[in-house]
């Protein structure tokens, strides 16, 4: 024992970090002590640690498959830790390609500059987030965002008739999302072809992301677009499938100067699809160029642009008076599942233009400045949205909203100060920021009762001239609104010990608006200002460093509420509505990333909700409403044997109104199913002449939910089966994917029937 103790005392440690050529963390790089059996792999933030190294002189090697090995000499002293950092010669984007190709689990990649707005490892972060990356997008042949969302534990896709898509998380819905951490227009016809990954950040996130239509008390999701890298490359893909589906896409990257400091990448895609119904179509195209320039080792610019255009048909469903209706479930409706009840002339034309810029300046090894800017404007060239409103079992009113044209814009400017420093012996990682958001819209709309149809008889025709004529006779409502948010925030992660961390965060937000301007009256109505505080606190204890951690958090989100005019003409000045979450759980990254994931329990209490109460025959508003969402979520990403990958998730949620209007008291929130599960298993051959050949299969389960707030009409649950076969080699990739193989009938949150069994085949040529 004395000898062993003496030998241990004569050892030291080696710690360091590996970064890419563009100063991003380099994950999964192998660090080897030459002529020993000691090695380590860098984590998501690029850090590694080698302990109990006998004193002496050594040579370290930093290596990964296919790239030049870097070497560095170190001297290990007794009871000392020597630092050894490396900078590899490829960019972050190139490294991600290496990770996808060679890591033991290609679906584990949770490094993010957006989730915490600072370099913070997943196991150090007290907040749960899930990432769906490009490797899974390719393997599942995902061409719609709804299929992408199905890989997020506890989440269910939803759809906005205006063309945006989103998801419900922890019982709360949103259809917009962030773009590289910034707020976008309310109109987001985004094509997955431009995406590197999507990040689902769970729980109320007002402290770092503020209060806007992109954020709910269930969380926020962030679209991360593709960035340039230092070598020429890319791919061109074509795809075709059921219901006249066709698509072509291109992803081209190239350096534009000799020293590879100026880089350019462009993504473009165009696709068209018919419908399984008698009428209907969906077309869109997108062009997204990105330019980056590394001025020197301190200063970097990134300019990201996007132009997307969409054209499609949409029909939603509306409940009437259920007294005259026998159905209480979409499956019981007498509507023909394969009939649209409109025609292709009643369509939507929308688009979005995004210009996003980022400037990073490294002040020192401990501090950097980051300036972010996003100009995002979405619009309807025309929108004819038809709703089928039930009158009785046979009769339906066709109500059409006519929005021609309309604009929705958002401008956000953000300045972050990011530091990694010590106060005494305590490490601090800090982000402090200033955020300004300018949101506006110009609306021109009318809603007309076009006709009442008997679904058991031939339909009357619909036409744009008839709809426009009826809208003009009724009159269009012309309004515009401007709202401004000015915020300051700070978030500090403190290493109390090497294993115990605390996160302390606070946001102060000032909202103001003149209200809505009516062009007919020339007056503004609804002006108000409001100040909100959003705190956040979290603790993490790493039971096993970089492998297993337990965490707990208190998180807060808020929604600004305008004053209400009561029936007696008094004004009720409202406070912000708040969502407060308590959560605890575990995160793990075990067996050299062969098994990763998280399990968490959460409880979200919503306060300051408004409710109405009937007094003397008049509805008065009160701000003492409450709501509670609680549940459990789990994610497992596994690589049990070489070539096999498993992605699985489960969520249980119960979201109810507590103190509310009598009609809502104790009711479940609409479109918030209790049980949601996802599973994807794939295997690809690693050796032999068939190397690159693979199979995948998946299942998604969504429980029943309610379509109406009174909990009288159900959206039935469903189980979707899917499978794929693919052949992926150096220069090309073939794939065939089957979706909804069980031919399940199911409906989205708008009551719109979804696609039966369908197939997609794709061919990609790699440059």
Give an account of the 3D structure.
The strands form 7 sheets. The protein has a 25-stranded mixed beta sheet that branches. A 5-stranded mixed beta sheet has the order 9-15-16-13-14. The chain has 767 residues and is mainly beta. The N and C termini lie far apart (60 Å). Strand 33 (564-565) and strand 34 form a beta hairpin.
What are the defining features of this structure?
disordered N terminus, 45 strands, 767 residues, single chain, 25-stranded mixed sheet, 6% helix, five-stranded mixed sheet, mainly beta
Structural class based on helices, strands and sheet pairing: mainly beta
Quick one: biggest sheet? 25 strands, mixed
Oligomer designation: single chain
Strand content: over 45%
Low-confidence stretches: 1-5
End-to-end separation: 60 Å
Radius of gyration: 27 Å
In short:
This protein is mostly beta strands. Helices cover 6% and strands 57% of the residues.
Break the fold down into its secondary structure elements and pairings:
Blueprint: H1 2-9, E1 11-19, E2 30-33, E3 39-41, E4 47-54, E5 56-63, E6 70-76, E7 81-83, E8 86-87, H2 92-102, E9 129-133, H3 134-139, H4 145-149, E10 155-159, E11 165-169, E12 172-174, E13 178-179, E14 182-183, E15 195-202, H5 206-209, E16 219-225, E17 233-241, E18 245-255, E19 262-273, E20 282-294, E21 299-312, E22 315-318, E23 348-362, E24 367-390, E25 395-403, E26 406-423, E27 426-454, H6 464-474, E28 477-495, E29 500-518, E30 523-525, E31 528-544, E32 548-559, E33 564-565, E34 571-572, E35 577-590, E36 595-615, E37 618-638, E38 644-657, E39 675-684, E40 693-702, E41 705-706, E42 714-715, E43 718-728, E44 732-739, E45 758-766
Parallel strand pairs: 1-7, 1-8, 13-16, 22-24
Antiparallel strand pairs: 1-4, 2-3, 2-5, 5-6, 9-15, 10-11, 11-12, 13-14, 15-16, 17-18, 17-45, 18-19, 19-20, 20-21, 21-23, 23-24, 24-25, 24-26, 25-27, 26-27, 27-28, 28-29, 29-30, 29-31, 31-32, 32-35, 33-34, 35-36, 36-37, 37-38, 38-39, 39-40, 40-43, 41-42, 43-44, 44-45
């Amino acid at each position: 024992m004395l000898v062993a103790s003496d030998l241990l005392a004569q050892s030291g440690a080696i710690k360091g970090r590996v970064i890419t050529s563009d100063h991003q963390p380099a994950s999964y790089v192998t660090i080897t002590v030459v002529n020993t059996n000691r090695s380590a792999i860098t984590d998501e933030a690029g850090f590694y640690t080698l302990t109990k190294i006998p004193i002496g002189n050594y040579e370290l090697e930093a290596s990964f498959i296919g790239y030049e090995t870097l070497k560095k000499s170190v001297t290990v002293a007794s009871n000392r830790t020597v630092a050894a950092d490396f900078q590899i010669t490829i960019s972050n984007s190139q490294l991600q390609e290496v990770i996808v190709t060679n890591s033991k689990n290609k679906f584990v990649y949770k490094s993010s500059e957006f989730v915490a707005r600072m370099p913070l490892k997943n196991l150090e972060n007290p907040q749960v987030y899930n990432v769906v990356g490009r490797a899974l997008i390719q393997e599942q042949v995902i061409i719609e965002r709804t299929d992408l969302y199905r890989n997020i534990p506890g989440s269910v896709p939803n759809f906005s008739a205006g063309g945006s898509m989103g998801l419900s998380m922890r019982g709360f819905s949103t259809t917009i999302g962030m773009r590289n951490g910034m707020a976008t227009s309310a109109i987001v016809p985004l094509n997955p072809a431009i995406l590197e990954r999507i990040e689902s950040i769970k729980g109320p996130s007002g402290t770092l992301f503020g209060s806007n239509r992109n954020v709910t008390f269930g969380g926020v999701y962030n679209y991360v677009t593709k960035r340039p890298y230092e070598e020429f490359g890319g791919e061109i893909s074509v795809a075709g499938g059921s219901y006249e589906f066709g698509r072509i896409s291109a992803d081209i990257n190239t350096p534009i100067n000799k020293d590879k400091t100026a880089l350019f990448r462009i993504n473009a895609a165009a696709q068209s699809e018919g419908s399984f119904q008698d009428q209907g179509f969906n077309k869109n195209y997108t062009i997204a160029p990105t330019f980056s320039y590394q001025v020197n080792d301190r200063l970097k610019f990134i300019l990201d642009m996007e132009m997307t255009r969409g054209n499609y048909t949409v029909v939603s469903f509306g409940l009437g008076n259920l007294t005259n209706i026998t159905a209480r479930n979409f499956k019981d409706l007498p509507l023909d599942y394969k009939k649209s009840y409109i025609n292709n002339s009643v369509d939507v034309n929308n688009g979005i233009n995004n210009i996003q810029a980022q400037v990073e300046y490294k002040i020192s090894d401990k501090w950097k400045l980051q300036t972010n800017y996003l100009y995002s404007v979405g619009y309807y060239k025309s929108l004819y949205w038809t709703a089928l409103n039930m009158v009785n079992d046979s009769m339906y009113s066709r109500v059409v909203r006519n929005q021609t044209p309309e604009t929705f814009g958002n401008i956000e400017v953000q300045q972050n100060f990011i530091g990694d420093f010590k106060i005494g012996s305590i490490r601090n990682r800090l982000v402090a920021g200033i955020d300004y958001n300018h949101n506006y819209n110009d609306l021109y709309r009318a809603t007309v009762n076009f006709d009442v149809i008997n679904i058991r008889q031939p339909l009357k025709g619909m036409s744009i001239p008839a709809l426009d004529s009826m809208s003009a006779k009724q009159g269009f409502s012309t309004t515009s609104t401007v709202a401004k948010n000015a915020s300051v925030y700070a978030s500090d992660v403190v290493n109390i010990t090497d294993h115990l961390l605390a996160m302390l965060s606070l946001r102060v937000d000032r909202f103001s608006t003149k209200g809505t301007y009516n062009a007919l009256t020339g007056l503004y109505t609804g002006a108000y200002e409001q100040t909100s505080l959003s705190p956040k606190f979290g603790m993490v204890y790493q039971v096993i460093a970089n492998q297993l951690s337990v965490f707990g958090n208190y998180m807060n989100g808020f929604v600004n509420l305008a004053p209400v005019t009561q029936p007696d003409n008094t004004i009720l000045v409202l406070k912000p509505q708040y969502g407060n979450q308590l959560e605890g759980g575990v995160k793990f990254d075990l067996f050299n990333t062969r098994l990763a994931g998280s399990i968490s329990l959460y409880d979200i209490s919503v306060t300051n909700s408004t409710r109405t109460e009937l007094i003397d025959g008049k509805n008065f508003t009160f701000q003492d409403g409450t709501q509670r969402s609680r549940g459990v979520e789990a994610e497992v990403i596994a690589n049990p044997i070489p070539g096999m990958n498993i992605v699985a998730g489960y969520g249980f949620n119960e979201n109810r109104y507590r103190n509310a209007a009598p009609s809502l008291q104790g009711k479940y929130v609409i479109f918030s199913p209790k049980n949601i599960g996802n599973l994807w298993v794939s295997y690809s051959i690693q050796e032999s002449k068939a190397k690159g050949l693979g199979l995948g299969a998946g299942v998604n389960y969504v429980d029943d939910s309610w379509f109406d707030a009174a909990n009288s009409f159900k959206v039935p649950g469903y189980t979707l089966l899917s499978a794929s076969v693919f052949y992926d080699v150096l220069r090309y990739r073939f794939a065939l994917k089957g979706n909804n193989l069980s031919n399940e009938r199911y409906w989205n949150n708008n009551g719109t029937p979804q696609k039966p069994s369908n197939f997609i085949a794709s061919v990609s040529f790699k440059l």
